[in-house]
Design goal:
Blueprint: E1 7-8, H1 11-19, E2 29-31, E3 35-36, H2 43-55, H3 57-60, H4 64-67, H5 72-83, H6 93-106, H7 108-119, E4 125-126, E5 129-130, E6 143-145, E7 149-150, E8 161-162, E9 168-171, E10 178-182, E11 202-204, H8 210-222, E12 233-239, E13 247-253, H9 262-270, E14 274-281, H10 284-294, E15 299-302, E16 326-328, H11 332-347, H12 371-391, H13 395-405, H14 426-434, H15 463-474
Antiparallel strand pairs: 1-2, 2-3, 4-5, 6-10, 7-8, 9-10, 11-15, 12-13, 12-14, 13-16, 15-16
Length: 475
């Protein structure tokens, strides 16, 4: 079997990491194809990547049919790959550029949307000139969005890219990019207050590969439900007109009914909302986590923190939230159908009373594809191998444990216990005691030995007398 080619983060995710201040940029190389390299990149490489994207924005925003005729496009991706790889993986910049080139041809709209959004952030420079942000004259909630409608043809002819605009259109300094400013359908409560904050724009969260999403969903399903995850509640889907077309708010709550509690809070942040779906389900929080993981690449957040939501506690220490649970979908009916499928799965009771997963009910998973079922089966197999290894250690380890529990005695240890003497042996014992020679103990006695003092005028005994006394004693 040949050696597998290295894997890297997706191109939209890598671009997001350049401009997202909430995350510390790491190397784009994936260790063993799944885990990210833990080496953090320097600020110098971050500035270099920013310069590459801004100075080559016009080339990166062209249609894939035009990029096939441009030899400079691949060199731009190579330079960008060198700035996003650490010193250990910089040698793989050609493979990274090849992967990103394929992703660009397959998901051109996704890459173009990410580039346009990131380069339209306040303070970002394109071709050496800062972008002009369009701000309304009156204090109102405004959203700046960029809509690119792509029409692809099966033939090799160049496709046409058209921009749709509804109301007022202003052309920015970027070639081929149109900034559209739309008046909002509703005005949130208290938004006319000059001190209140306004929702300026939304930004996409960091994207993930489909394989990573499936593995995370499988891990979340196999986790036991306990505490907050085990409670029954409601899930809801709301249309948010103030954030633009196709924007929805998804969440869960344990209050009954939710429109008396959550609706008021959401209207305070977004203005009037429209209910699309509300359903009661077991394990509402767990279901919410799974849905947000499945639609991870469709999730958005506010670019600026919401000033209408005041965090509990000390406001100076805590920041206002950005409301991450915002989904952008083109066909809401598909999202509703997917939500209902997951609700039916949780109503079947996939978890026991103890909170563990009932594996027999895994056949009732929503029928989307076999990737999720395969990921769950692989995860359960790995857990079984781990548990069996703990219960049945290797033979060498079992032998060492058995030798500790049951020590082996040799012949030197046999009959160590002395026999009990009888009355017939008393005479022999007393005779042996007379011939017993006691040797001094190797350790000194704790009691101090008293040595008699010799008088000053008394003569010292001679050595000859001592030797004669010793000889007589021995005789």
């Amino acid at each position: 079997m040949g050696k597998k080619s290295p894997m890297f983060d997706t191109l939209p995710y890598t671009i997001d990491m350049v401009y997202n201040e909430d995350y510390s940029a790491t190397c784009a190389y994936r260790v063993k194809g799944t885990d990210n390299c833990a080496i953090h990149l320097t600020k110098r490489s971050l500035k270099e990547a920013n310069h590459i994207l801004t100075s080559n924005f016009s080339d990166l925003s062209k249609h894939p049919e035009e990029q096939r005729r441009s030899p400079a496009f691949f060199r731009i991706l190579q330079n960008f790959a060198e700035s996003r790889l650490c010193h250990n993986h910089a040698k793989h910049f050609d493979q990274a550029a090849s992967q990103w080139c394929d992703e660009y041809h397959q998901n051109y709209r996704d890459v173009a949307d990410t580039l346009t959004r990131c380069l339209a952030l306040p303070g970002t420079q394109v071709h050496g000139a800062p972008l002009k942000a369009t701000t309304p004259m009156k204090p109102q909630v405004s959203v700046i969005s960029v809509e690119l409608d792509e029409r692809e043809c099966d033939s090799d002819d160049a496709s046409s890219v058209e921009t749709e605009q509804d109301e007022e259109v202003e052309d920015s300094d970027i070639d081929g990019v149109t900034t559209i400013e739309k008046p909002l359908c509703g005005t949130p409560r208290g938004i006319l207050d000059p001190e209140s904050a306004e929702i300026r724009s939304i930004q996409r969260n960091l994207t993930m590969s489909q394989e990573t999403i499936m593995n995370r969903i499988a891990s979340k399903i196999c986790q036991p439900v306990e505490g907050k995850s085990s409670k029954k509640g409601w899930i809801y889907l709301l249309r948010v007109p103030s954030l633009g077309q196709g924007m929805y708010k998804f969440g869960h709550t344990t209050s009954e009914p939710p429109m008396h509690d959550r609706w008021v809070k959401h209207e305070k942040c977004y203005g009037p909302v429209q209910e699309i779906l509300t359903s009661m389900t077991p394990c509402a929080y767990r279901l919410e986590q799974i849905i947000l993981l499945e639609f991870r690449n469709n999730e958005y957040q506010l670019q600026e923190p919401c000033k209408q939501c005041k965090s509990s506690g000390n406001e100076s220490d805590k920041k206002s939230p950005r409301h991450h649970e915002l989904l952008r979908v083109e066909k809401v009916e598909e999202l509703k159908e997917r939500l209902n499928q997951w609700v039916f799965f949780f109503r079947d009771g996939p978890y026991r009373k103890s909170g563990t997963l009932n594996r027999k009910l895994l056949e009732n998973l929503p029928p989307k594809d076999d990737g999720l079922k395969q990921a769950i089966q692989d995860l359960l197999k790995s857990k079984r191998r781990t548990s069996s290894a703990k219960k049945n250690p290797p033979s060498s380890q079992r032998q060492s444990q058995a030798s500790v529990r049951n020590p082996i005695f040799t012949d030197s240890h046999a009959n160590v216990r002395p026999q009990t003497p009888t009355a017939e042996d008393c005479a022999g014992i007393t005779s042996n005691l007379q011939h017993l020679h006691l040797s001094p103990s190797p350790t000194q006695s704790k009691a101090t030995r008293k040595v008699p003092r010799r008088r000053a005028n008394s003569p010292r005994p001679s050595k000859d007398k001592d030797s004669t006394k010793t000889a007589s004693a021995s005789n």
